[in-house]
Amino acid sequence: MDYLTYYGLTHEPFDKEEVQWVETIDSTELMTRLNYLKETRGFGVVTGRSGVGKTYLIRQFLKSLSPSLYKICYVPLTTVSVTDFYLQLSQGFGLEPHRYRAANFKQIQERIQTLYELERVTPVIVIDEAQYLKNDVIHELMLLSNFRLDSIKPCVILLSGLPALTQRLQRAEFEAFSQRLTTRYQVIGMEVTEVKRFITHQLKQAGVHDVLFPDPVLETILSNTGFSLRRLNHILTQCLMIGAVQDQRLISQEIVYAANQEMSFI
């Protein structure tokens, strides 16, 4: 049986395209730090295990930035050489890439300075999966951010990645880089009370106000997700599908167990 029809849902409540973030400790703490980074400019590092929601939160922050005041340059591919890294930055800033690395470096720096000083626009460079950055790229980022002997800070550089990124930056060779960090935060994931608010909110958005997931099963669900929002959404959907097949209006511990078993094969 179609679980949407069975539970009276207007759409899939836990599909990633439909998920609307509810306020959590992580969202409050991270947004406070990112807003501080926005005002002060400089380097920021956000880490967290895969699926905990750090990318979503950063995306929400970027959406809050006015296009007339901020220029976002997103770098998704980090397993590249310094030359290729500069090519990505050049393209992100709408520049024609040069053949030589030094020329790319110079034009990127000039573009950042022009945006900030003449156009009154703050460049925001976001580097995803930063745990894969090569060491020389990290050192080049420091050089790229040097303006007038650090007398001005014209841009925001935000690194996002797995917890291994924090461990790398603690090495002695990156001490100078770590000292220049304006802010850092590790996203942990939702707690039980936050999961309950999240589920209630998503179900209401899909037209269902009844309790489908009783409190006793929430801890079991959370313990099976490893605090991953992505896995949480998958398990919740799987529970609803199994519940509909078994003609169960309330999701039981047995259904959660069955959903988790099925998820282990995905």
Summarize the structure in words.
The mean pLDDT is 90. The protein has a five-stranded parallel β-sheet, with helices on both faces. It folds into two domains: 3-12 and 190-263, Orthogonal Bundle (Helicase, Ruva Protein, domain 3); 25-187, P-loop containing nucleotide triphosphate hydrolases (Rossmann fold), CATH 3.40.50.300. The chain is of the alpha/beta class and 266 residues long. Helix 4 packs parallel to helix 5 and helix 11 (229-245) crosses helix 12. The chain is elongated. 30% of the residues are buried. The protein has twelve helices and five strands.
Describe this protein with a few key phrases:
alpha/beta, 266 residues, Helicase, Ruva Protein, domain 3, 2 domains, 5-stranded parallel β-sheet
Reconstruct the topology from this structure:
Layout: H1 3-7, H2 25-40, E1 42-48, H3 54-63, E2 70-75, H4 82-92, H5 101-117, E3 122-127, H6 135-144, E4 156-161, H7 164-169, H8 175-179, E5 181-187, H9 192-205, H10 215-223, H11 229-245, H12 253-263
Parallel strand pairs: 1-4, 1-5, 2-3, 3-4
Helix pairs in contact: 4-5, 11-12
Put the structure in a nutshell.
The chain is built from twelve helices and five strands. By secondary structure, it is an alpha/beta fold.
By CATH's scheme, which homologous superfamily of the largest domain applies? P-loop containing nucleotide triphosphate hydrolases
Strand order in the sheet with the most strands? 2-3-4-1-5
Q: Strand tally, please?
A: 5
Biggest sheet statistics: 5 strands, parallel
Structural class: alpha/beta
N-end to C-end Cα span: 21 Å
**CATH fold descriptor of the largest domain:** Rossmann fold
Q: How many DSSP H or I helices?
A: 12
Q: Could you state the order of secondary-structure elements as H and E?
A: HHEHEHHEHEHHEHHHH
Could you say what the CATH architecture of the largest domain is? Answer: 3-Layer(aba) Sandwich
Low-confidence stretches: none
Give the overall pLDDT as a whole number.
90
Strand content: 5-15%
Which CATH first-tier class of the largest domain would you pick?
A: Alpha Beta
What is the approximate shape?
Answer: elongated
Number of domains: 2
Radius of gyration: 22 Å
Percent helix: 40-55%
